[in-house]
Amino acid sequence: MVIEIRKAVPEDAEILTNIARRTFLHDNELKPASASPEGPPGHDSIEAQRQWIESCLYYKALYKGQIVGGGMAWMENPEIFHIDGMYVDPDFQGLGIGSALVAHILKSHAPGKKWVLETPSFSARNHHFYEKFGFIRTKEIPNDLGWSDIYYEKIIL
């Protein structure tokens, strides 16, 4: 199989951190000129990645056996799950890896649940990506980083 999705393990933290750092640095090309160049909190910290691997439903995406991305889900309560921190190395985007990752997460944890996520306003490709999975835009809230956060949700029956 070319694309595989597996649970991340603590030993993956360093490589996942490097890929996340590279991916979110690449996102700076999309941000408004006056926006903060920072990525999501913790994305560039090996220790934060390790803690998420140990405490969340954290998955790694592999392409031809190589780790090329990751993402996590976490439970707010028994009825609401969050998708968070999704990323695919820029060199491997457009190959269906992100789609495989989201599909796996939803299929593995979804029945009868509400899923929520947020993504930045400057990333139209993210909006289209989540909308093709049936996520509905619910609100937009300006932040102090120079863009707005777009919130989505989906109920899986």
TrEMBL record:
Entries under Pfam families matching the protein: Acetyltransf_1
N-acetyltransferase domain mapped to chain residues: 3-157
Keywords: Acyltransferase, Transferase
Molecular-function GO terms, alphabetical: acyltransferase activity, transferring groups other than amino-acyl groups
Superkingdom, taxonomy of origin: Bacteria
InterPro entries per UniProt: Acyl_CoA_acyltransferase, GNAT_dom
Entry keyword annotation includes Acyltransferase: yes
Protein name according to UniProt: N-acetyltransferase domain-containing protein
Species of origin: Candidatus Wallbacteria bacterium HGW-Wallbacteria-1
